[in-house]
Amino acid sequence: CVQDGSGELFLRCVQDGSGELFLQCVQDGSGELFLQCVQDGSEELFLRCVQDGSGELFLRCVQDGSGELFLRCVQDGSPDAKRFLAV
């Protein structure tokens, strides 16, 4: 995440040494929802959904009819609340 002049946070696309693109996010310390980049044992990068229990929206990975994966906002309380999203 990067911060613009208005104080809003947004996602930024970054490139690592291998040329792979991934989304990077940081916490702004306000208790708001955010995406966190984590690594598993295989060194793969994942985005993790984090929520503060306020009933706010979070992101879930879903598949459409074409087989493409995309992110969708869903209400807190869904069984997918702790799902990991592959980058």
TrEMBL record:
Q: Which domain of life is it from?
A: Eukaryota
Q: Which PANTHER family match?
A: LORICRIN
Name assigned to this protein: Uncharacterized protein
Native species = Biomphalaria pfeifferi
